[in-house]
């Protein structure tokens, strides 16, 4: 049998990984290809990784014919060196032909790999195209085979900076459901100050939820996500909302970021909890009917750490003691009075909403 080993962090597995695996299976006429997710890359910080279980689960969701996941490195724990993995497979399949798939970006450092000569003697190193720069010397020295695959511009790091189209839809559903990579994505979408505000809102929302015996997790996540699209331009926001039938005529600028956040989280990030999403959708405008969670998010957003309203400490105290009393004073001070002071003219609908919840 012809068997290939395809190691990597798969953090998360993206469309390019699958294309490479398919190319390798076809071009090398493989009987089996094993994805071997790393427990920890010795050159990377551990905090960059989501858990082994999650990365393996996501891999399992995208396997095609002749593909499998090996938990050798994750089960073994600690730092994984390629030589250990290669020896393990050689042991397991002593009479088969083994291939080791690596990206062309790794070729230049190949001579620094632990026990590279032994690796090259046990398996055929196959180099797939990732970019055009690689060392031809190493390629020859270790008798590598160059795969003539088409280069696909997919990467996990692009995913983590918010390019969600890098992964398959079912992988994104898994990510949204388990709230993975959100911190990385938020950091790349937002300025440091805004990102801090997400944290502070999440923390205060969690505190409010705790005092009201509500789900701390939901409140925290609502706070953590609520301003995810706040720094999009108006143009970007309206263009994103076009497919939902929303435009300059039926959605005012101040309603934009709560609306884009709702749709982006629901349809792109695929966050599934509708109660949380609905709270985010009205976190600026409020609504005539509000769930307890929506009240919590509104309050937390307005008076969390970092907010400097006059009397903010007193408002925090009131809100922590009594949610509805807190909502009254926060709506009065931070929505109604503040907007009036700024000379903002409300729509009738908006005035009705603020007045319902204010003091
Ligand atoms: Fe907001
Ligand atoms: Fe906010």
TrEMBL record:
The keyword Hydrolase is annotated on this UniProt entry: yes
Catalytic reaction list: nicotinate beta-D-ribonucleotide + ATP + H(+) = deamido-NAD(+) + diphosphate; P(1),P(4)-bis(5'-adenosyl) tetraphosphate + H2O = 2 ADP + 2 H(+)
Keyword Disulfide bond: no
SUPFAM superfamilies (alphabetical): HD-domain/PDEase-like (SSF109604), Nucleotidylyl transferase (SSF52374)
Keywords: ATP-binding, Hydrolase, Iron, Metal-binding, NAD, Nucleotide-binding, Nucleotidyltransferase, Pyridine nucleotide biosynthesis, Transferase
EC number: 2.7.7.18
Listed InterPro entries: Cyt_trans-like, HD/PDEase_dom, HD_domain, NadD/NMNAT, Rossmann-like_a/b/a_fold, YqeK
Pathway: Cofactor biosynthesis; NAD(+) biosynthesis; deamido-NAD(+) from nicotinate D-ribonucleotide: step 1/1
Pfam families: CTP_transf_like (PF01467), HD (PF01966)
One annotated GO molecular function: nicotinate-nucleotide adenylyltransferase activity
Record-linked SMART domains: HDc
Domain HD/PDEase: 190-315
Function as written in the Swiss-Prot or TrEMBL entry: Catalyzes the reversible adenylation of nicotinate mononucleotide (NaMN) to nicotinic acid adenine dinucleotide (NaAD).
Record family assignment: Belongs to the NadD family.
Protein name as catalogued: Probable nicotinate-nucleotide adenylyltransferase
Lineage: Bacteria, Bacillati, Mycoplasmatota, Mycoplasmoidales, Metamycoplasmataceae
